[in-house]
Amino acid sequence: MNALVTLAESLGIxxxxxxxxxxxxxxxxxxxxxxxxxxxxxxxxxxxxxIIIGIAAVLAxxxxxATLIPGVATTWEAAHTMIRTPAAAALAVAxxxxxxxxxxxxxxxxxxxLGLTTNLAKLGLRVAVDSSPEPVSNGIVNxxxxxxxxxxxxxxxxxxxxxxxxxxxxxxxxxxLVRAIWRAIKNFxxxxxxxxxxAGASAG
Length: 204
Fold this sequence. Notes:
83% helix, mainly alpha, 0% strand, single chain, 7 helices
């Protein structure tokens, strides 16, 4: 049971990192430092270092502001695919560092895969939302993502298995939402073209 809990905690932090690495590090560090969560397992206690918290918080703020800008948001998310995936695996391994070597390896493999999948689902949603030329929709998405990360970084230490199941369900729903949005966009544009061609033929 302890091994399952450790693996759930590892995958929970990997999931949160796939959404926002910097916010995850900052929130886990703050939670550990002020006793809201923990004691965190493995070597994650280092995240409570004020320097790490400060740097992560600044980067999280930069990320929040950058992803408010249409166009920049998609570029930012695409670039961070290469950062969040190995970081998710590393944080998962750090979480399981006290466990059996088999659990540590599984945490790294599954954590990296979950971080990548979560980030790609987020990227697909961001590209769809980013097609809007105003920052309001981006701001809403940013706030929702930050709320999910905050909820995950708190609940995965108190109810890790429940939190992980909820995260996986949310990930599946996000992927279905991205698919539905892209299908709607595709149908919208494919529906306009015949109308335009008909109008052009009538004018001729």
